[in-house]
Amino acid sequence: MRIDVEDLHIAYDGRTVVAGAHLIATEGEITGLVGPNGSGKSSLLRTVYRHLKPAAGRVLLDGTDLRELSPVQAARRVAALPQERGGDFELTVREVVAMGRTPYKRAFAGEDATDRDVVAKALADAGMADHTGRRFTELSGGERQRVLLARAFAQQTDVLVLDEPTNHLDIRHQVELLALLRAQSRTTLVSLHDLNAAASVCDRLHVLHEGSVVASGPPREVLVPALLAEVFGVHAAVVEHPLTGDPLIAFDHRAPADGPVLPRSGPTAAQVGS
Length: 274
Prior knowledge:
2 domains, 4-stranded antiparallel sheet
């Protein structure tokens, strides 16, 4: 399923946060949104999973306006992993994942064989099949993200929307979660703070800056030093990752792009050698 965002405008309390955004997420690919804090990434994603109504413009799923769908129809097409989690669940891992079957159930209906099979597969795909009886509140941050991703898998949607899913995860859990996304065949729209993670996992990137999409394309074409300086305010070189061949951004941590290069603190090389 393809996503088309057309001339999207989003405003809060009369203040425009996204202005005239156009972007595409191609079927079966991972499309990333990157940009500084406050650039409009989360607001744009909220319109895609219908948490926020745009002031103008539209979101199309295979040519159908998202707002023309009923809540149930939309929930069968788009699953979301937002930043705001809605608090802790006093439920078991399996119970949380089974919530993903809600769009397919009649009121007060119990699970059927299809529900059980789908939940079991979602748990297995997310690597949580051995933790079904544990309480969600007992899990680590990485385990919770896996459970919430499994819940999204259980919705059996063609589209998956994730808002900074690697936030607050250690490096191992970040790598594991991004590997889970790569293993899926869903159309995925994800915002990421880590530009190197975005370059590695995404097929296509859209760069947001001050509410506008300022660049779009494959990571290798988009993440160039000039854009990194203009949008993110950093000096950087882009090289080839020695293990994967993906673009790897090496940041100069001594200075922002608009400031002087600062000398390193501590002893100089000459002092160390003396």
